[in-house]
Amino acid sequence: MLFYFPKYKIEKIKYFTAIVNARKNDLNKPAKQITYLRALKTLKNLDIILGTFLENEIKVFVPDRNKNKVRQNASVELDKNKTILPLLGNNYFFIKKTEEKGSDVNIASHLTMDFYENKFDVAIVVSNDSDLAEAIKILNNKNHKSIRLLNPYQKTNLKLLDAVSGNVKKIRKSVLAISQFPEFLKDNQGYFHKPKDW
User: Fold this and answer.
1) Residue 164 gets which letter from DSSP?
2) How far apart, in whole angstroms, are the C-alpha atoms of residue 173 and residue 181?
3) How far is CA 92 from the centre of its chain?
4) Is 108 left (phi over 0), alpha (psi -120 to 50) or beta?
5) Which of 20, 122, 136, 175 is close enough to 163 for a disulfide, judged by CB 3.0 to 4.6 Å?
6) Where does CATH 3.40.50.1010 sit in the chain?
């Protein structure tokens, strides 16, 4: 944050997430996340606000050119939120889709509350979720306050871009690389170390 906005004084950081479930190809996923949240709690002035994950099975069509690959990897993740389940036939598969629920509402609610309680001059939102666009657009540039966006993705959602009046900075991999926690950390429970991968 300070790398992109060195002149600002950080009063409060709010981290919005949900506790993940284990996956067949990553049984340690919840433990790694809990370790990461523990590391975050070593930072001053940081609050963690939890939503929930909702898991649904949906049916998707897979073209012939990908069918054999999918058959061979019947439990592989399509991406971080979708897991392939057994074949239904005729190129259709069940997909287990995980969606984070509540975090967008929580972000918009806290942003609005902090705005009206005069807790910031500038709020920096780290997201590319278009569901936040309306709340940001309503609050941005009102009462001498501004909302800016740090985008973790290559492209910025157009609704968000409009909502922040173009005040967007993209998070670069090189900045992420120099912003990692150290290998070992200490809190009131003692020493702990980061996993091989977060």
Assistant:
1) T
2) 15
3) 30
4) alpha
5) 136
6) 13-51+102-186
Which two three-digit tokens encode residue 3?
Answer: 């790398």
**CATH of the structural domain 13-51+102-186, one choice from 1.10.10.10, 3.30.750.24, 3.40.605.10, 3.40.50.1010:** 3.40.50.1010
pLDDT average, residue stretch 41-67: 79
Tell me the pairing of strands 122-126 and 146-151. parallel
- Which two three-digit tokens encode residue 41? 């709690």
Q: In the numeric block, which tokens belong to residue 4?
A: 């992109």
Confidence of residue 62 (pLDDT cuts 50, 70, 90): low
Q: How many Cβ atoms are within 10 Å of 91's Cβ, its own excluded?
A: 14
Tell me which residue has tokens 């940081």.
Answer: 46
Average of per-residue pLDDT across 101-129: 95
7 compared with 24, residue with greater pLDDT? 7
Answer yes or no: is pLDDT of 67 > 90. Answer: no
13 three-state secondary structure: strand
Q: Three-state secondary structure along 77-126?
A: EEECCEEEEEEEECCEEEEEEEEEECHHHHHHHHHHHHHHCCCCCEEEEE
